[in-house]
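Database export, one record per block. Field names are fixed; values are copied verbatim from the stored entry.
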Amino acid sequence: MMKTTVKYVVLKSKEYQLGTPLFEESLDADGSYFDHIPSVIHFQQHDFRVKSKELTRKQIFDEFEESQTILVKVIAVN
């Protein structure tokens, strides 16, 4: 398990401006978490389709620490 930060950003929606951070979550997850992010995200009674995902993984060898940041870009679904 490693510290994982997942950031969801809106690319297109009537309710949100372009590039608006939708929400962010921090959790402990394994390296395969990226592959298990669903193609549709439900947030505040809205559905968002995942357009792209980016994974950044960082290792600090002195502290034996590994973390990953996942940026998920979504589009509102009507």
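Remark 1: Strands lie at 2-12, 20-29, 40-43, 46-60, 65-77.
Remark 2: The mean pLDDT is 93.
End of record.
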